Amino acid sequence: MRFLFAFSAFLTGIAAAALFAVSGLHVTLEQQWREAIHEWSPREASGQVHVVEIDAASLAAVNRWPWPRQHYANVVKRLDEAGVRSIAFDIDFSSPSAAGDDAAFAAALERAKTPVYLPTFSQAASANDRRALEALPIEPLRRSVSLASVMMRPDADGFVRSLPMGAVTGDMPRPSLAAASSGANGAVDEIFALDLSVDPATIPRHSFVKIERGRFDPDELRGKDVIIGATAIELFDRYPVPLHGVIPGAVVQALGVETLLAGRFVEIGWILPLAFAALISVWILGAQTSALAAARGGTIIVSLMVAGFCLQAVSRIAADIVPALVCVIAVTGMIIARHLHHDFQHRRLYDPGTDLQNRRAFVQRPGIDEERLTIAMALDNYEALRAVLGEDGSDTLIRRMADRVTEYDASVCIFRVEERVLAWTVSALGYDPDQELAKLAKLLRAPMYIDNRAVDTDLTFGVASKDALNEAIHAARVAATQKRTVSFHADTEQENMERRVSLLGELEGAIEREELQVWFQPQLDLGSNEIASVEALVRWQHPTRGFLAPGHFIPLAEKSNRIDSLTIYVLRKSIDALMAWCDEGIVLRAAVNISARLLSSRSFIREIEQLVSTSGIPRDRLVFEITESATLDDPEESTAALHRLRALGIAISIDDYGTGQSSLSYLKTMPLSELKIDRSFVQHAHKEVSDAMLVRSTIQLAHELGLTVVAEGVEHAECLEFLRSAGCDIAQGYLIGKPMTFDDIRTITAEYSRKVA
Length: 757
What we know:
It is a single chain. By secondary structure, the chain is an alpha/beta fold. It folds into four domains: 2-26 and 270-346, no CATH class; 40-264, no CATH class; 357-497, 2-Layer Sandwich (Alpha-Beta Plaits), CATH 3.30.70.270; 520-756, EAL domain (TIM Barrel). Helix content is 47%, strand content 21%. It contains 28 helices and 32 strands. The chain is rod-shaped and about 145 Å long. The protein starts with a helix and ends with a helix. 40% of the residues are buried. The model is unreliable at 124-131 (pLDDT under 50). This is EAL domain-containing protein. Residues 500-753 form the EAL domain. Keywords: Membrane, Transmembrane, Transmembrane helix. Pfam families: CHASE2, EAL.
């Protein structure tokens, strides 16, 4: 889902930018951006272009307008004698004046050795007639000069930002005045952007009357390109130019020459910058937070602007970057919006102190079409603990408790529904709340260290139906007042009893019809690195209720005295599997769990003796696992039963070592072959100092007593390496393999054998 959103944001950004560009909406912003670059990178004129201006002083000296063209003849003569490189007029000569003056001007043009350009342009016939009338200098003036277009094309807002390279007048293509003076080549109607970074005030200007009267230094003009035009306000030849205000047309033409002398801007348009922006916008898609997305988007935007600035100011490459910026902004905005929405939802549905889901999330959780129970766990001494630990410390404690619950049952999702209350739901099928929650309470009451303080917790549990959260919380409070660990809401307790009765009846039939399956979890010999043994585990695929975990029906079978038939069933299936593996040359041991209740049943012991004796199975292939607490009810009877089983050659393993209350003397008095360390101490032993110390000391103790040590709950490679270094004999856990079928055991055994070979 996240990938699809990121991909759609990426495509949306590109589409928005392309639409923005195609529609032309970017043009104004592009102009403003380019003008800003010009403003931020000002430079002085080259000094190659000089303006001879018909200024106010010149108008006052002649005291009439239009001037007699003899004056122009005089100026051409002066400039030609000064050795200028070119002379360009930005003055209309399309109408004849006094014959003598026209002749004098024509003669001066003919005598001049310097190239002279006279202007040509077109204009509307009248206010009501939009036909273009071409204005060419009168014929006598055209004989010894070149014509150059002085046309300007202001943009829609009236500002002049570009000039043409040429135009067609008199059915002839003509270069523009700027192109002619600079010697640049270009196509007719091709336009070029003015370099507005040039300060017009730095273009050298000379009063027309001073040039005419010879009051100037010829060396200043030698080899220069001269433009002659009006600058006096009275003559109205002025145009608005961005950054520089309203300036004379001759100065605009001078800016054009300066631009072409430095080199025209290379226009690369918007497609290439957009493609580049789209490519680097992928970086934004991977941002994990809105702040990071904003930072990455901002970095890309700044980079694009810096690149655009450098391209234009340094390399004279004009790139349309606004569509690229739109793309980046759109992508960044969508990613930020997604994170903000996610953060908003997270704040609504998660507790800020522990990051656990809250009551609202519990209410809105997806529905499940099965019978479930709601469990509420209340920390009854929360206020006292909070007073000592502070808010952060108490939040850490709640988080640790939630972690322990999920370690006990990885299938549950924990909610913090009140400051002191955690809640979750479990499948009601075969679930024994009294037994399961008693085990969980024992795990949770083990001391936790918060800020180097050992913290003891006072817990109670409330049980109610699937969506009855308030009822479950109330039941937990009732349990606290009644000094009980678990309390049921009234309706739930009755429903739970009915489920137990129903499931127990179905279990007996399932055993008779052999509907139960026996799977095997492999155990790795850490010395040989081969699969040396397996643990037999029963599974029930109920025809209507679906898969039922062992915890749903084994506790019920124990309480109802039906565990003997279930155990014999598992033992028989395990012996069958061992015999089949033997026939294939696979040497394995199989561990079968024996309930504490059965050790005092002489009929059960006799049935085992008969089954093992008649099976023909090598006795050393069987291991019976007895929970540590099994010996507590009747130590003498339990010990006698275990000696009888040991006499058959069957190995005896004490299971879940470390979680019970037995004395160390039991390890010495019981006929044990093996000690199995509980997963709650093993799974974090590679990173928890206290667990590591317990595991190492247990391994050392067991070895001194001549016992093999099995560690269960191995889920990480680091944990496995720790157990090797600690001298453990056998490891069991999901890292090695989950419970699997008979055929899968054959496969994994072969795989480990190949690794050793």
